[in-house]
Amino acid sequence: MYTSSIQKNILAELNHELAQTRKTIERVPFERADYKPHPKSMSLWQLATHVVNLLAFKTLFVTHDSRDFLDPNAPKPGPTPTSLDELLARFDEYSATLRQALSESDDEKLTHNFKLHRGEHVVFDYPKGTAIRIMGLNHSIHHRGQLTVYLRMLDIPVPGLYGPSADEK
């Protein structure tokens, strides 16, 4: 159902994308963690971990007003997971935290700006709702798409994300 609430629309989109992302991550073969389709590419495990860690970053957009990449005291994700079970547990934990933060927010709070910067260099300064959409959802969807290419190249069936995939027909 359509709603004019920014918060409810973002939460609905987030819930849909989280379900699709989890389906993709479930298929990542840990035994192929070092796989890279190109020397400049992230490894399969780096990419899968990045997709999961972006969830914590999205939570920052909701709960804070800025993030300085040069701040040594800024929150950072935990150590790299050493199994698919650990990665999925982190995904579930970060997803729940993000959902809760968004549920506790409201439209007015989502219009406040979030500034991402590296010292004096401003990467972006957007309303929180926009930051969540652009650097949160869109960024994650981009990397999830890369992850599906890795799966295809490893001959692992790709899940359908917006309808059936070629592997599900």
UniProtKB/TrEMBL annotation:
InterPro entries: DinB (IPR007837), DinB/YfiT-like (IPR034660). The keyword Acyltransferase does not apply. It comes from the Bacteria. Keywords: Metal-binding. The keyword Chaperone does not apply. Pfam families: DinB (PF05163). Belongs to the DinB family. This is DinB family protein.
